[in-house]
Amino acid sequence: MPVPHLIGLTTGKVSLCPVKLILFTQRMLGLFSTCSMKSSTELQKFVRTQSRSYSTLSTDTKARSCLNFRIKGRTSRMSSKHKGHSSRMPEESSPKRSPQNIPYKDLPHIINADGQYLFCRYWKPAASPRALVFIAHGAGEHCGRYDDLAQKLTGLNLFVFAHDHVGHGQSEGDRMVVSDFHVFIRDSLQHIDLMKKEHPKLPVLILGHSMGGAISILTASERPSEFSGMLLISPLVVASPEVATPIKVFAAKVLNFVLPNLSLGSIDPNAISRNKKEMESYTSDPLVYHGGMKVSFVIQLMNAIARIERALPKLTLPILVLHGSSDKLCDIRGSYFLMDTVQSQDKTLKVYEEAYHALHKELPEVSTSVFTEILTWIGQKVSAAGETSHT
């Protein structure tokens, strides 16, 4: 099934009235819960309030941009001296703190190209590692939610590592805000490069869930020959055709132009898993973002989907895709499309009937099967990569 075509919005030659735009997008999307705004006067008042808020946010954004420029310049000068962003720990005098107010000097981290601190996790095996596995988490969550899976992978003598994406978990950045989806790919490659430098002879595999699946696809497509395998759990590949109609996509782009920080609603925790214990763990996790997803972030996801359509034909590496047939967050048709499009000779799709989105957090009979599938597949690919390196 083809990926829905994304319509661009050109505003350079058009004067747009905010009130008319909101009326239009309200009809097209039904996104506003402000049903009491029945009159034009009330709508105008709403727009003025939002505009003032947006102006303030814009000013703050400019201030942050200037700060990031200064940090980046300082980091760049340090890079020439220390050969890149290889230092994981800042100087003791660093005032930087995580969103949870923990000094980054007390946390494992990397500093990305924008000078932002990204919290990292490392799961090192007891014996010498056979391979590196990078995990890319999904939207709104954090890499700590993959501890169970990572611990099992270390049992295969794999060195597992991950970080909280910008705007997620214990990393810097406004919550679930990113200037460009490519920032996630850039940061992933930076982290992978750091680990490859420390372990230059080890094969590298990448594992991604949901939005992390999109990140994994685009990361692998940047360097298609450098990864020994890619494993995707319920990946974001396409937008639902019923939701992403051309007119709704157009309306979303209009909203992004007028009110980019408008919330479109939060992720439904009931769609994560059928496992009540896991659902409660998700809703009570303070590192998970439970707020509304902003229009600007949705636009970045749509941009990523467009890039994925172009990237898939480049992929020839071994791929394993796991997806639940009742996934309401990432359309399973995307996984079928991926299987039809990638050029990999070694590709497998396993569908779990009636399972929801987070297969690794599903009912025990599903999650146990998922872990077994992952461990078996990765073990085979690591062994194959090891044999290739010795020939």
Folded structure, characterized:
Pathway: Glycerolipid metabolism; triacylglycerol degradation; Lipid metabolism. With 391 residues, the chain is α/β, with parallel strands linked by helices. The chain has a single domain (18-389), classed as Alpha/Beta hydrolase fold, catalytic domain (Rossmann fold, 3-Layer(aba) Sandwich), CATH 3.40.50. Helix content is 42%, strand content 12%. The chain has helices at residues 18-29, 40-82, 147-154, 182-198, 211-222, 246-258, 276-284, 295-311, 333-341, 364-389; strands at 109-111, 117-123, 131-136, 158-163, 204-209, 229-233, 319-324, 347-352. The chain has an eight-stranded mixed β-sheet, with helices on both faces. α1 (18-29) runs antiparallel to α6 and α6 packs across α8 (295-311). The radius of gyration is 22 Å and the shape is globular.
Topology, pairings included?
Elements (H helix, E strand, L loop, with lengths): L17 H12 L10 H43 L26 E3 L5 E7 L7 E6 L10 H8 L3 E6 L18 H17 L5 E6 L1 H12 L6 E5 L12 H13 L17 H9 L10 H17 L7 E6 L8 H9 L5 E6 L11 H26 L2
Parallel strand pairs: 3-4, 3-5, 5-6, 6-7, 7-8
Antiparallel strand pairs: 1-2, 2-4
Helix pairs in contact: 1-2, 1-6, 4-5, 5-8, 6-8
Family: Belongs to the AB hydrolase superfamily. Monoacylglycerol lipase family.
GO molecular function, one term: monoacylglycerol lipase activity
Main location: cytoplasm
Strand residue percentage: 5-15%
Assembly form of the protein: single chain
Order of helices and strands: HHEEEHEHEHEHHHEHEH
The total domain count is 1
Strand order, main sheet: write it out: 1-2-4-3-5-6-7-8
Question: CATH superfamily name?
Answer: Alpha/Beta hydrolase fold, catalytic domain
Please mark out the parts with pLDDT under 50 across 5 or more consecutive residues, or reply none. Answer: 1-92
